[in-house]
Amino acid sequence: MQALPNLLWLRSFEASSRLGSFTAAGNELGLTQAAVSNHISALEQQLGHQLFERTTRKVDLTASGRAYLPAVRKALQDLAVSTEGLFGNRSSGSVTIRAPISEGTLIIGPALADFQQEHPGVTVRLLSAIWADTVLETGIDIEIRLGSGNWPGVRSESLGSEFIVPVCHPALAKKLKKPKDLTDVARIHTLGFDDHWARYFEALGLDTPRLSTSITVDTSLAAVEWASSQGGVALLLERVASRLVSNGRLTIPFETKIPSTQTHFLLHREASGPQKPAAQTVEVWLRQLFATPE
């Protein structure tokens, strides 16, 4: 294995790139400006590339620095998450949640401000996942997944039933006078929910139209953005749709809804020990958040 740069040098590099100053980085890390500068110089010497352009008031990343930063930042974050998962978090008020990217963005994220007002001592770290993993990673205090509830090595707790409803831009909804009009507009399909449109048309008593006017995306978040730009009609979980309707981005053109074959689950490792109090507080809040569509 090739020699890796000193961890202190990498921390100084990441902090300096984020704060734009060796002095500010030193203040954050408990080091002097000179120590940070020496760390960066040693790192540049080992790599054989200049990472910063120095000026009298600030430092800016070079092209090499910008290319290197994402890898360094991810490595430091992964190390922090693994250390916390294996050896515990010294900050008992810090809780890491991982959730599907759409739910994290459209359900959990918008509600976090209210949660933190009620629980100022709890710091939440929200990570996104596009596809469900088969293993619950270390370093994750709470995980929410959408699926059938059958994953090896974990205990799953259902967070309630889900229903599917159509959504579109309000301007497009004005053109949809009756459910049959859905056969004449672009339909947005989300990977992993391939049977939703067929089941929805069956619930309407209509034949499923050809797919010539269909659009396919890989997340519900992408479906929301496409529908919001008047690109077509999407089928979403009702709890997600209701939030978007309340802020005026989308509307539900027809009241017919169908049960979802997948629901949200709260996951725990089968052999996990007792949770820290902050994680228990967050779990109670998540159960309430997912209890009923808003």
TrEMBL record:
Alphabetized InterPro entries for the sequence: LysR-type_TF_proteobact-type (IPR058163), LysR_HTH_N (IPR000847), LysR_subst-bd (IPR005119), WH-like_DNA-bd_sf (IPR036388), WH_DNA-bd_sf (IPR036390)
Keyword Transferase tagged: no
Keyword set, alphabetical order: DNA-binding, Transcription, Transcription regulation
Residues annotated as domain HTH lysR-type: 5-62
Pfam families documented for this protein: HTH_1, LysR_substrate
Molecular function in Gene Ontology: DNA-binding transcription factor activity; sequence-specific DNA binding
Entries under SUPFAM superfamilies matching the protein: Periplasmic binding protein-like II, Winged helix' DNA-binding domain
GO biological process, one term: DNA-templated transcription
Sequence similarity: Belongs to the LysR transcriptional regulatory family.
Protein task: Trans-acting transcriptional regulator of RuBisCO genes (rbcL and rbcS) expression.
Protein name in UniProt: Probable RuBisCO transcriptional regulator
